[in-house]
Amino acid sequence: MAESTVAKSTDVVVVGAGPAGLAVGACLKKAGLDFIILEKERQVASSWRRHYERLHLHTVKQFSSLPFLPFPGDYPRYVPRDLFIQYLDGYAAHFGLQPRFGETVGAIRREADHWLIESTSSSIHARNVVVASGYNTEPATPPVPGIENFKGKVIHSAQYANAKPFTGQSVLVIGMGNTGAEIALDLAENGARPTISLRNGVHIVPRDLFGVPIQMVAMLATKVLPTGANDRLFPIILDAALGDLSKYGIRRPPQGLLQQIRSTARIPVLDVGTVGKIAEGAIKVAPGLSAVTADGVVFNGGREGRFDAIIFATGYRANYQSFIAADAAKNEPGLYFVGYRNSVTGLLREISKEALAAAAQIRHRHDARPAAA
Fold it and tell me: What angle separates helix 257-264 from helix 227-242, to the nearest 10 degrees?
């Protein structure tokens, strides 16, 4: 539980107690620094606890654990959501991390040689701030003409737990990122009739390429070949692994796979069975929407469809802009962002690298500080 009165000053304030915030906390503890973790919810990893039930990590466990504590040996290669939450709870306990829960950060601003962090119950002075509040924090739902007229159920994927409420129903999933693809698969495997509305092109890769985790393939490929060469090679390999998906209405974006990640931070869909269900006809693919009616939608091109429910799998946005002008402050000393770099080699792997680097830089700043007179 949060304390009613918090410390007035500390070396570091960490915003967020998800995987990034916990990783930073462990690294700061190893570095011998004083820090406070502020978390708006009442438990660590709150967003992971809200994710849909069938979710697994799409990256292999040996490259997805946080610093200084690998996953237990009996965990499967791709860790399921529940075991990942169990690991994060254990990680916090192992390192004695005690976030101040119920603390929503309202503002972070520079004052002289330190930062002032204003949260629910206090104002804290810190020489360093690590923003680790999460890449996927606030659900993003684009405007769709006529959505208010639809008589069926409308939810964002953030509200989706499992397929039980949709059994026997025709469900439109808007968007084909990893979440949309996996929710459509979950629906198809549990008695619903899903259709994915795909507005733009999408890169799809198998989670395992000829038995080798695609994450490991990407790690090797990006070491030995430049981006352009990989982007020319991957389509050939992926067509051999998945077949030509254009016959199902799935096209690739004009940008290559790696170039798209670099320019837009959008990672490819890691297929865990969705493509097979599309090939079987259990999951339909349709164009983007032009309008929504009382009992269905009109797709681009004029085709109509009737649906019982609509699920927006249209992603999330980071929320740190609500308390700090990040673009204006990124060059300020003592300000760090951890967990906002999507990479083909895995977000959790990047989090570990960034947490270690941030803690090392903060330790260096601490040691270089002039001695008090």
Answer: 120
Q: Are strands 170-174 and 309-312 parallel, antiparallel or unpaired?
A: parallel
At 370 the pLDDT is 73
- DSSP of 151-178, one letter per residue? -SEEEEGGG---SGGGTT-EEEEE--SH
237's enclosing H/E stretch is helix 227-242
Crossing angle, helix 227-242 and helix 214-224, to 10 degrees?
A: 150
Classified as helix, coil or strand, 203 is coil
Q: Quick check: 217 pLDDT over 60?
A: yes
Angle, helices 347-368 vs 19-30, to 10°: value is 40
Token digits of residue 357: 């680097």
Angle between helices 81-94 and 19-30 in degrees, nearest 10: 30
Where does the chain have alpha helices with state H? 19-30, 46-50, 81-94, 178-189, 214-224, 227-242, 257-264, 274-280, 326-329, 347-368
213 bridge partner residues: 208
CB 241 within 8 A of CB 210: yes
pTM: 0.90
Pairing of strands 170-174, 193-197: parallel
pLDDT of residue 6: 47
In total, the chain counts a number of residues equal to 373
Residues linked to residue 31 through DSSP beta bridges, in sequence order? none
Closest CA to 369 of 26, 7, 30, 33: 33
- pLDDT tens string 239-253: 999 999 999 999 999
- Angstrom distance (rounded) from CA 59 to CA 216: 9
Q: In the numeric block, which tokens belong to residue 261?
A: 């990640």
Q: What is the mean pLDDT of the chain?
A: 92
